[in-house]
Specification:
The N and C termini lie close together (11 Å). The protein has one domain. By secondary structure, the protein is mainly alpha-helical. Helix 2 packs across helix 5, helix 3 runs parallel beside helix 7 and helix 4 crosses helix 5. It is built from seven helices and no strands. Helices cover 78% and strands 0% of the residues.
Length: 143
């Protein structure tokens, strides 16, 4: 089945991915300078991904690739800021203090590696969901 020109996804746009990824800057600053308990942090990420999904589907971006790349870059921003602001992060997140001590501190490789892993995992899951929503929308519009 051929999609009409209006339902074909746009090429991947680096600027759009970059804009979405800035969520990671916000989260890196929030988690480091304010501190967010795990449940709050996860809730904020979920809310951000819902917004991403709506925006990606409405603007007809390539859903899977756009979400995956934005999520990975967002992880880089978050992890980098947490490393740069490590002292503030530790002071503002006492609930993670024991884990940080057991891990031998906040090494750049460990923090950024974890952030990239989470970015990849969330990107794969959310990218898959957004792709399914976009396909359903395209099918509904073509019938």
């Amino acid at each position: 089945m051929q999609l009409s020109e209006s339902t074909q996804p746009r090429p991947v746009r680096g600027g759009f991915i970059f804009a979405l990824s800035l969520t990671g800057v916000v989260m890196g600053l929030l988690t480091s300078l304010v501190g967010l308990p795990q449940a709050v942090e996860v809730s904020v990420w979920i809310a951000a991904y819902v917004v991403w999904g709506v925006v990606v589907v409405r603007t007809r971006q390539r859903p899977f690739l756009t979400t995956l790349l934005a999520s990975l870059l967002s992880g880089v921003w978050t992890g980098t800021l947490q490393v740069v602001l490590a002292e503030q992060y530790i002071a503002n997140n006492p609930w993670y203090a024991e884990d940080i001590v057991q891990a031998g501190g906040m090494t750049a490789a460990a923090v950024i590696g974890f952030a990239l892993t989470m970015g990849l995992a969330w990107g794969l899951v959310v990218g898959g969901i957004v792709t399914l929503v976009a396909r359903r929308r395209d099918r509904a519009q073509s019938s």
